[in-house]
Amino acid sequence: MSKIRTRVAPSPTGDPHVGTAYIALFNRVFAKSQGGEFILRIEDTDRARSTPESEKAILDSLKWLGLTWDEGPDCGGEHGPYRQSERGDIYKKYADQLVDEGKAFHCFCTTERLDAMRREQRLNSQPPGYDGRCKGLSKEEVAERLAAGEESVIRLDVPREGVCEVPDMLRDPIAIEWKQVDYQVLLKSDGMPAYHLANVVDDHLMGITHVIRGEEWISSTPKHILLYQHFGWEAPTFFHLPLLRNADKSKLSKRKNPTSITFYEKMGILPEALLNYLGMMGWTMPNGDEKFSLTEMTDNFDINRVSLGGPVFDVEKLNWLNGRYIREDMSTDQFVQALKDWAFNEEYINKFMPLVQERVERLSDVAPLAAFFFAGMPNIKAEDFAHNKIDEETLQKLLQFGLWKLETQRHWNKPAIMADVKAVGEHLGLKLKDALFPFFVAITGEPRSVSVLEAMDYLGPDMTRARLRHALEVVGTPSKKQLKRLEKEFAEIGTFMD
Q: Disulfide: which of 69, 100, 312, 494 matches 40 by Cβ 3.0-4.6 Å?
């Protein structure tokens, strides 16, 4: 039997997500429990949204949790490169092979034509999906259009009849009709691969034996099985973990729960407690213990003990477990050292202490002025946002638009943050000082404090966004109907470009 090899393949397009850690944990534990290897691969083919900053944050967060890997972009390995953006020639070779063998085809449909097709499908209550218009083009016509410089994508040819049996190590085989599977884009017009082609090619070339991922990928698995068949490769063993969920059983989302690993780090959650809690989300120790280490989970791991129920990510339960680690596993000296490592370290304090120093007259003024740099959510009330230039509707827009702008900000620094806040304020007809007021309250808990823009820079994107979401809950989160209206208005605000 070949050595077991698993992988996690995050996209560097935002804050490091607890869902990524959850999937990474189970991949690593399964591989190591069988004497196998765990690989990290970066899926950065979304060139518009992928950033080096996000990649670094993901790698740093997984390392902070103790989820190390045997091969990856930072440590290398014999199956590299481990960034998909560096493997473009590989994907093109395999996409062209499928076209040559009649298992994929060039599609020249424009965005306008595809949009019109989808509108017609909605009007006729038809299932969405590509209608196969370019599937029947002759080789001669395709060659002529390509020679003329016409843009195209490469799509997978998918059967329209029959059923695909999707095997899953945790479930009975899942039957999915081929007619429900779209003619998937494999290679985009810019030459970059779509997820499905890159995923299958990389898993095969990197020797991945078991694919452990979230259950949202079940419906895509027929495309992957078909690609393995087309290439004549043996498919890996699939198993799909249950999704992490909010209290209302919906998929875990940042709008209802903090999802950034670094948010929990900055809230003072210990890495071993967060890792332990993620393990509890889908698995139990044989003796029923809720508190266990990564080593104990690995030593006792049995994939058949994975529960398929939708695990609810309960922050209060995480806090309770974290408290147990603090009380049961730490001496006073260790507790003091953990505080230093967390936020009371020179590197972090030296960032913002010049801001504090400018505003104090006594050393005893420091603690109340700097407290929000070490706190979680500020203790704020709706009336704290009262301002003679900002009515209730404008306040809600300021916070919501500000949050949306900052959620898409890939370059987290004071100039970029200021440009986002300024753009929102100008859209609402406010001077910058008035537009900044609710941000002071939301971020620092006070109407006046140290520079709020620099504070947001030092606190980081995860904590800043979490405090803005908290402020929206305090003043009143927009309803679904209001959100749709606000989304249309938000589109009018120009995007900051550096």
A: 69
The SS3 of residue 9 is coil
CA distances from 201 to 23, 99, 235 (A): 20, 15, 11
Backbone dihedral region for residue 156 (phi beyond 0: left; psi -120 to 50: alpha; all else: beta): beta
Please tell me the distance from the alpha carbon of residue 152 to that of residue 142, in angstroms, as a whole number. 10
Exposed, middle or buried: residue 138 (CB in 10 Å: 0-12, 13-18, 19+)? exposed
| Secondary structure E strands in 223-330 | 237-241
Peptide bond into 81 cis (omega under 30): yes
> What backbone phi and psi angles, to 5 degrees, belong to 133?
-55, -40
Cis geometry, peptide bond prior to residue 271 (ω within 30 degrees of 0): no
Beta-strand relationship, 37-40 and 5-8 = parallel
Q: Which two tokens stand for residue 237?
A: 């063993």
Strands (DSSP E) contained in 138-278 are 153-156, 163-168, 171-177, 185-187, 210-214, 237-241
pLDDT at 467 over 50: yes
How far, in Å, CA of 269 to CA of 312, rounded?
A: 18
- Band of residue 494 on the pLDDT scale cut at 50, 70, 90: low
| Tokens found for residue 321 | 């477990």
- Candidate list 254, 397, 405, 422, residue with the active-site label: 254
Report CA-CA distances (Å) from 378 to 373, 375, 464, 470, 474.
Answer: 10, 7, 11, 9, 11
First vs last C-alpha separation in the chain = 52
Compute the distance between CA of residue 245 and CA of residue 77 in angstroms, rounded to an integer. 35
In DSSP notation, 98-110 reads HHHTTSEEEE---
Q: Which residue has the tokens 């994907």?
A: 91
- pLDDT, tens digit (0-9, with 9 covering 90-100), for 351-403: 999 999 999 999 999 999 999 999 999 999 999 999 989 999 999 999 999 99
**pLDDT higher than threshold 50 for residue 12:** yes
254 catalytic? Reply is yes
432-444 and 461-475 helices, crossing angle to 10°: 100
**Which DSSP string corresponds to 274-293?**
HHHHHHHTT---TT--S---
Please give the Cα distance from 25 to 17 (Å, whole number). 13
